[in-house]
Batch of 2 targets.
Target 1
Amino acid sequence: MPLSQVDTLTDAQVEEMLADEAKLTEFTKRLPFVQDYQLREQSVKALQQEVDSLEARLQADSELDSIRRERDAKLAEFEQKNAQKQAKDSEFTPAVLCEKLGAKARDVDGECEEIVSQFLAGEMNGKDFAKAYKEKRIHFHTLSAKKESILINM
């Protein structure tokens, strides 16, 4: 019943409506501006739910972006460490190891020659010569044996 219909009600009907909470509520709900208000309130609630949903998706997208950035950083770190590992691995190929062992054996052989030169020049006694020369020759032959072992297994 619209507000204009209140004028058509008798005083007894108005007092009856005022005394009965349910009738008053029903009358109030049928008022056009109350119905309009309720429609707007429902519309606002629906929009708020959409906003909340979009905010939740945005939060999820932000978390996803954060996870992606973390993944990209870890991937870059992995690639860098993998490149370092491959560089180190290339230092230990059989060919490189043979070359390094050969170079070290040549150096030790040169040290042996230096010990012989010192002995012949009288800078070293026989006992010290024998000990130093023997240690260097053992080292030389150990290096040479390792090099040969790698060459055989290649």
Target 2
Amino acid sequence: MNCKSCGKEFELKGKRYPYCSEKCRKEYGKFSANCSFCGREIMKHRYQESRSKNFFCDIACKGKWHTENITGENGYNWRGGSWNNRVQLLAHTSYRTWRAGLLNGAVCILCGTDEKLELHHIVSKAARPDLIKDEQNVVPICAKEHDIFHSNSCKGGELRGLLNDILSHGNPQPSLPNVLLYVGRKVQRLMGEDIQSDKPDTSAAPERDDIVRAYSERVRG
């Protein structure tokens, strides 16, 4: 009997497939091609011939070829415009190292704590990705105040106003009047006073003043 793959005559001797060897069985129905990246000759199944114009000897060659050729306008999902790599930049080790260096020894610009600090970008990362690692565009803010800062609440508006006031004066830390104003409003809210009114609850004033005084002493210290 002749091998179906190479044509060599052989004895079947109970073999299930009409091939003279395992190699012929595996190569039957294949065709010869060259790797699109390294040029090495490879064997591919016949059904793959109509599926692609490019063939690769392994996944490494395929990945390298894609890196060089399937980018920008040649990309499968290209829709025009520019590609924003903001997410990749924020997750990169170099950015994390840079951020850790800035936060080392820093305190929250709004409340003065040194716990759970984050970097707040004055000009948003989405609007100006090129300023993500600009030291002039970031300030340290604790996680708690940062969440409130970006909220639509009344307190969030107060924090945004406080930060704008601090930055407009070029002061890296909040001034004492700003701190007292912020703490006073916070205490008013905790004591149930109307922060929109010029007539505070005098019964709560002594306790409120004690809190503000204690906080101001800690800031001065």
